Protein: ROK family protein
Organism: Streptomyces fragilis
Amino acid sequence: MTPMDTAPSGAGLVAALDVGGTKIAGALVDADGRVVLRARRPTPAAEDGATVMAAAAEVLGDLRDLPLWAAVQAVGIGSAGPVDRAAGSVSPVNIPGWRGYPLRERVRDLAGGLPVQLIGDGAAVAAAEHWVGAARNSSHALCMVVSTGVGGGLVLGGRVRPGRTGNAGHIGHISVDLDGDPCPCGGRGCVEGLARGPAIARRARENGWRPEPGGEGSAAEVAAAARDGHPAAVAAFARAGRALAAAIAAVAALVEIEVAVVGGGVAEAGEVLFAPLRRSLPEYATLAFTRGLRVVPALTGPDAGLIGAAAAALGRVDG
């Protein structure tokens, strides 16, 4: 359990869960979007659904054991998707034991009947960045995570718009190459298959880059090589940036966003990714109303899912 330097009195707290394929994180979050206390467990993603739920219950139990729990007014869940907000269920691609799993109901029971809101992880990132991050002053934004996958959420008209089932803004499965490789989603040439971390690392290796002895061959290592000028590493990030530019421009043409906020582990490469992305964007954002589109780094970092789940609990997400 990790506290802030100064914990508040407890007024206006909500509990938040951030469910992903590698970890289940929990937090108490105040009305200003500050994370007060954290808990987490590894996600037993290869196990059955009950085992995964037991891990989530342990995280929530850590929060319930705190004296501050008495001030908690609601619970928000941000989950890997797909999600179904209407049914309160989740079917994360990377948690096979949960298919149509009634997560909202299970959490409500564990939380003593408190109100529970469920959103997808992409919408959670959008909610976090719009509340306290890089989209704070924007009414129309796309907020993205580029990591082991590519996801996102939309802010339109000053509100987070998760869509009918909660999956709107799922930019990772926009096709940017009609003749590209098949995607596990069933499509072809999806931006996720070109811009996610493992795809960048694979592309660099195919073109001659090799990790240092003892290295894992990660996208972070490719980024370091790109900073040193390795041509295959530079080209791998350029390709990813171009794919992201095409997808972002498509979203801008459809819903007139004014800013694209990009976070996640791959975005930590900084200008290695952002420079080719911004350079490529004018090739795709050619319509007059898309030309002023800005691309900026996310600000909420690894807490984005928790802050966004809290935003949903506080009614800052439509639907």
